[in-house]
C-alpha cells in the first residue's frame, strides 16, 4: 500500500488521504510516514492539514470521549429507531 500511495502522490500536487485512515493513531502515524517520504512538490496530507486546522481524531479517542461525555442509557437504540432529534443536541 505504501508504494502505491507514493506512486499516486507523484501524479498530483496534493494527495488528501482521510476517512478510515484517520480513525486511529496508527493511521495518523502512517500518514505522517508517507508524507515524510513524498517529495515536497507532491504533498500527502489529511483534510485537516489541507484546511489548515488541527487534526481531531474523535474516532481514535472514542473510549475517552464516552467517559468524558457519556450518552444516556438507550440513546444508541433510540437513535437507530429515528427517535433522536440531533438538531437540539
Structural summary, described in words:
With 89 residues, this protein is mostly helical. The model has no long low-confidence stretch (mean pLDDT 91). The N and C termini lie far apart (40 Å). The longest helix is centred in the middle third of the chain and has 13 residues, at 25-37. It is 44% helix and 7% strand. The chain has five helices and two strands. A two-stranded parallel ribbon has the order 1-2. Strand 1, helix 2 and strand 2 form a beta-alpha-beta unit. The chain has one domain.
Distance between the termini: 40 Å
H/E series, N to C?
Answer: HEHEHHH
Number of domains: 1
Determine the fraction of residues in helical runs and give it as a percent range: 40-55%
Q: How are the elements arranged and paired?
A:
Elements: H1 2-9, E1 14-16, H2 25-37, E2 43-45, H3 47-51, H4 62-68, H5 75-80
Parallel strand pairs: 1-2
Amino acid at each position: 500500500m505504501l508504494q502505491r500511495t507514493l506512486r499516486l502522490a507523484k501524479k498530483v500536487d496534493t494527495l488528501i488521504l482521510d476517512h478510515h485512515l484517520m480513525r486511529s493513531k496508527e493511521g495518523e502515524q502512517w500518514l505522517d510516514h508517507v508524507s515524510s517520504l513524498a517529495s515536497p512538490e507532491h504533498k500527502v496530507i489529511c483534510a485537516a492539514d489541507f484546511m489548515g486546522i488541527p487534526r481531531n481524531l474523535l474516532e481514535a479517542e472514542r473510549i475517552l470521549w464516552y467517559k468524558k461525555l457519556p450518552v444516556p442509557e438507550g440513546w444508541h437504540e433510540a437513535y437507530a429507531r429515528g427517535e433522536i432529534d440531533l438538531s437540539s443536541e
